[in-house]
Amino acid sequence: MTMRTTLKRSYYQDSVALMGLARELRTGAGVREAAALMGTPANQTLMADAGLLTEEARAAGPNDLVIVVRADSAAEADTALARAELLLTARRTRVEAAGRRRPRTLDSAVRQLGGANLALISVPGAFAAAEARKALRRGLHVMLFSDNVTLGDEIALKRLAAERGLLLMGPDCGTAYLGGVPLGFANAVPRGRVGLVAASGTGLQQVVTLLAAAGEGVSQAVGVGGRDMSEPVGASMTLAALDALGADPATELIVVVGKPPARAVRAKVEERLHALGKPAVAAMLGREVAPGTSGALTTVATLEDAAAAAVAGRRGREWAPRAFSDPAAARHRVKAFRAARGPAGVAVRGLYAGGTLAYEALLILEPLLGAGSVGGNLGGHGGGSHRVLDLGADEFTVGRAHPMLDAALRIEEIASAAKEPDTAVLLVDVVLGHGAAPDPAGDIAPALEAARRHAQAHGRGLAVVASVVGTAADPQGLAAQTARLEAAGAWVLPSNAQAARAAACIAGEPRVAEALLSGDA
Amino acid sequence: MAVDCVTAREALGLADRTVLHSGPPLAWERACPPVRTAILCAIRYEGWAADDAGAQGLVESGAVKLAPCHHSGAAGPMTGIVTASMPVFVVENRPRGNRAFATINEGLGKVLRFGANDESVVTRLRWLAREAGPRLGAALRAAGGLDLRALMAQALRMGDEMHQRNVAASSLFARAVMPHLARTAPDTAAVARLAEFIGANDQFFLNLAMAAAKASADPCLDVAGATMVATMARNGTDFGIRVAGLGPRWFTAPVNTPQGLYFPPYGAADANPDMGDSAIVETVGLGAFAMAAAPAVVGFVGAGGLRDAVRITEEMGEITLGEHPHLRIPTLDDRGAPVGIDVRKVVETGITPLINTGIAGHTPGTGQIGAGVVRAPLACFEQALDALAAARARA
Amino acid sequence: MADYRDLFSRLGGELRVINLGLESFAETLEGLGVPVLHVQWTPPAGGDPERARLLSLLEDEDGV
Known about the structure:
- The complex is a heterotrimer of chains A (521), B (395) and C (64).
- Chain A has helices spanning 15-26, 41-49, 55-58, 74-97, 106-112, 125-137, 151-164, 201-213, 236-247, 263-275, 303-315, 327-340, 355-369, 394-397, 408-419, 440-457, 478-487, 496-507, 510-517, and strands at residues 2-8, 31-38, 65-71, 118-121, 141-144, 168-169, 175-178, 181-184, 191-198, 218-223, 253-258, 280-284, 292-294, 297-300, 347-352, 374-376, 386-390, 423-431, 463-469, 490-493.
- Chain A is of the alpha/beta class.
- Chain A has a 6-stranded mixed sheet with strand order 10-9-11-12-14-13, sandwiched between helices. Chain A has a 6-stranded parallel sheet with strand order 16-17-15-18-19-20, with helices on both faces. In chain A, strands 1-3-2 form a 3-stranded antiparallel sheet.
- Chain A is globular and about 65 Å long.
- Chain A starts with a strand and ends with a helix.
- The relative contact order of chain A is 0.08.
- The model of chain A has no long low-confidence stretch (mean pLDDT 92).
- Chain B is globular and about 55 Å long.
- The model of chain B has no long low-confidence stretch (mean pLDDT 94).
- Chain C contains 3 helices and 2 strands, in the order αβαβα.
- Chain C starts with 6 loop residues before the first helix and ends in a 7-residue tail after the last helix.
- Chains in contact: A-B, A-C, B-C.
- At the A-C interface, helix 1, helix 5, strand 4, helix 6 and helix 7 of A face helix 1, strand 1, helix 2, strand 2 and helix 3 of C.
- Strand 4 of chain A pairs parallel with strand 1 of chain C.
């Protein structure tokens, strides 16, 4: 076994590009492990943990690119490094051959691209606020994809944006649609008449994909960042977006996606929603949300209900929440899984790539499985046997890619959950769209299959319950991704909310399934 | 506008027993060999000492003082030596009313600016003072001044970048000055000597370009809060910059040695670290900044063709505030040359100004041994940024 | 606060995007025919946080 390092001084590359490079290198003959990272302290820790922190890697600075390869032989390691060099050069050559000059700064880009009106910023968080500020000062709207931007910076940026009538979408804004253009992690959805304001990227993705499935399109979708409706931020971008959508002739119905606003801003937001003169749906994901209708505003508790209420509103139909879109099929599947699960299998393990989807699952599972019975990293109340993990949370993504891009972490978690004897259900999400991995279902399907087999070998039945956030037009294809999961033995439901309910029906007390599966058929 | 050519004593008020040199302030002890020998040669030329030993004694005792050209309104190429009796061009920035000065370029071979120190150097300096200076002065006065900006804009369209390549600008200057020279000269022999001298030196115009650049850059030195570089200069030991918003203060760092091509039999080992005030032309968007206008220079500095030339100009565009309204580059669809180096942009990107330069031999008197490019050291700009931030904090 | 009611008419028919950070976002937009320019961004001042702070401090100074 040999380790070899390439250190390229002052050679910044973005994390997604480097992840792709490392993945390429790992496929090389004799290569056991490969890392391609910028030499930040966090990344050096990561390399140390992986046993890849060579002398050269230790000497790297935050602006230096480090490539470390561990291979069976020195020759194989060198071949891999030579390949890395080739791949990096090929990237540059491709850009240069296209005759495009890459500006080095925002300023120079503004000069080069006449009429620019939006800056899409996904640089590391420590640098993001400064770039966003520059963009706003130059009259650009900003989508701030970066996370780890301080609350103080967010407030200052939004104040600056408000002075100038500009959008500051974010920080941590994963998805938006402006003028039909999908930005960030976004599904291919048709243009239409529903305008959205979203504090959550995956939440927005779930709503617009369900709208698309029902034949409704998006006029505009403005991301505002998860903290916009907190007291210190005061919903400044939410209110701005509502004003804009209210006046937008292409928007006939408005959907707001987020957590319930802080007490101090709730009245302002509700007042604005009522004053729009357009029907509105608010999906408020929170424990104390009372669904209902007041005037033109319908409040719902899940993302699926938001889409359903919006579709009904567009078509002038009555609407009521439902647990499953195909209760008969659900009854049948639940019965089979409950019969197979064995006496020890009582727990739901939610392993999520989408943060809001994880939170929605938690909110659905808690009342069904018993208060205090669902743990995890989302402020689940309690140390019960059930668990929902948001694998995209900061504690999991320090120095590594988000699970929507790199399935490695989720694969590990799936394997370890399968080994726990009380696991009855693995509950997962798969998010498609621009920006997501090319084959996210295929990335985790083998692990899901292996998990089921492992349980089976130990005399337990393990149910895999999934939902896919996507559309037929997405690059990965909704049907193909669904089929891939089904081939791995997963039960794929049309929404995350239904998947969470299905999981509760399988793992919970018999009365849960009875309550959800009777009546509304 | 080139308006005159008179002695440095008259133009700069330069006192006797003072030797001006290029770059930021420099103590004799730290001077590189070509600068030292040029200083000694100038002292002998002025007759303040009979030989080098005597001249050195005067410098070491402080009887002869050293000062940067830039502190007296002048810009000098390479060693940049100016003393009182040397003639200097007077270039005026008409809208602003300020003036800048530069000596007459001596030509190639054994010359003072490359640190040569023998009788041929002194003989030429005497001719410049006795004949060339007064004749050129009379011609420029008779012409009512020559518009250098228009001339440089035209030369830029003829393949000059006014640092490494001045052949078009020198020719245009000769064309413009000759009738006035002929009309004001006492005899045809004098006209012939001048015509021959200017015609034999492709770099004749460099000094005029430097004075013009300095005349246009100097007024910025008083603009409070501005982050634009107003001066870049080197003395063979240090590279120094001055920044618009920070007045006369220099920010210095050890100068780099140029990368380039050498005339046989010389090589990199023979090269002196970079020197000269000529980087003032890059400061105003010429030289390497206008490389796209002068593809012929690119090969000389070790790069490829037009594409590389364009790339260099575009890279300099990353660290500048705007494009020159008059100096336009035909190969870039007549866009203006990138001008106004911003300290912030240099520090932000780590892209340092590129300078086209001649390479002097390290051994005094060798003269020019090659040509190439050199980067300004980042440390100058980092110090300037710190000072700008401190000034801002005080304000 | 400025008026946002004309936001979408101000944005007009065409989005023109400057992308800083993940290059894949620019590639997606390019594939969709959206005018986009990707910035070859690197951490300012070579990643030196103190100088980056000074750069922000001087951000609104006039250059000239």
